[in-house]
UniProtKB/TrEMBL annotation:
Keyword Hydrolase (UniProt): no
Protein name (Swiss-Prot/TrEMBL): 2-methylisocitrate lyase-like PEP mutase family enzyme
PANTHER family: CARBOXYPHOSPHONOENOLPYRUVATE PHOSPHONOMUTASE-LIKE PROTEIN (AFU_ORTHOLOGUE AFUA_5G07230), PHOSPHOENOLPYRUVATE CARBOXYLASE
Source organism of this protein record: Rhizobium loti
Organism placement in taxonomy: Bacteria, Pseudomonadati, Pseudomonadota, Alphaproteobacteria, Hyphomicrobiales
SUPFAM superfamilies, per database record: Phosphoenolpyruvate/pyruvate domain
InterPro entries found in the cross-reference section: ICL/PEPM, Pyrv/PenolPyrv_kinase-like_dom, Pyrv_kinase-like_dom_sf
């Protein structure tokens, strides 16, 4: 447990506004070892690529036991902090969320993403509901003795097209970030957000380190750093690029 505690502390320290940690998302032990070899400072999984690698759709379709076994194997294959995408915690009730977090920590994770969208439904959990869920996750972290990093995600921007992102959505995101921080979150994840002005305002408006996904419409790493971002992840992009390459090579080999 001492090593896990140290890795958790290291992972916290890597979140610096203006000097973001880059997480090139992996999906299994093999991909994690490759990312580690490339010079990564930490390993992060993404729910979509992990599910796809095992033949499942995203949205908590992969059995939790399989996802936990996968994270345990990843942790055992690298010498870096590992953070797990827990989606919505595999249940709405705070008690279920706490149990899921506890199992992830027992598997060796030192952090996790936890989203506010209603998995399997539509829309987002009300702030009051999500706060209770984050509080349960934070309580589970405290009880474990592992200072894990809770990366509270909002899907506000993913559920709207980039050209519809505006100050109204930003204000809603800021309100959630501030509530999530009080509930015990350590970071705020805003996937889909790519507008420079909105990103900069978000980073300045909240104390939590901000996580942005490096999608096609998002500014490059150096610009994100200048805007105050503390964490850049790549989500499903690495797996999709790998899958496209593999399919192209397979087609070429099969067709001769």
């Amino acid at each position: 447990m001492t090593e896990q505690i140290e890795r958790a502390r290291t992972f916290h320290s890597l979140h610096v506004k203006g000097n973001p940690i880059v997480l090139y998302n992996a999906w299994d032990p093999g991909s994690a070892k490759i990312v580690e070899k490339a010079g990564a400072k930490a390993i992060a999984t993404g729910s979509w690529p992990v599910a796809a690698a095992f033949g499942y759709a995203d949205g908590e379709k992969i059995p939790l036991e399989l996802a936990l076994d996968n994270i345990k194997r990843i942790v055992g294959s690298v010498d870096l902090p590992v953070t797990m995408d827990l989606e919505g915690g595999y249940g709405v009730d705070p008690e279920i969320v706490a149990r899921t977090v506890t199992l992830a920590l027992r598997a060796g994770a030192v952090g996790f993403n936890f989203e506010d969208q209603i998995v399997g439904g539509s829309g987002l959990h009300d702030i009051a509901v999500q706060v209770k869920r984050i509080e349960a996750a934070a309580a589970a972290v405290k009880a474990s003795g592992i200072p894990a990093f809770i990366n509270a995600r909002t899907d506000i921007f993913l559920k709207a097209k980039p050209d519809a992102h505006d100050d109204v959505l930003l204000d809603q995101a800021i309100e959630r970030a501030q509530a999530f921080e009080k509930a015990g979150a350590h970071g705020f994840f805003a996937p889909g957000l790519g507008d420079e002005g909105l990103i900069e305002t978000l980073c300045k408006a909240i104390a939590l380190p901000v996580n942005i996904i490096a999608l096609a419409h998002v500014p490059p790493r150096q610009r994100l750093a200048e805007l105050g971002v503390a964490r850049i992840s790549h989500g499903p992009v690495p797996y999709r690029q790998m899958a496209e390459w593999l399919e192209a090579k397979a087609r070429q080999a099969i067709s001769g």
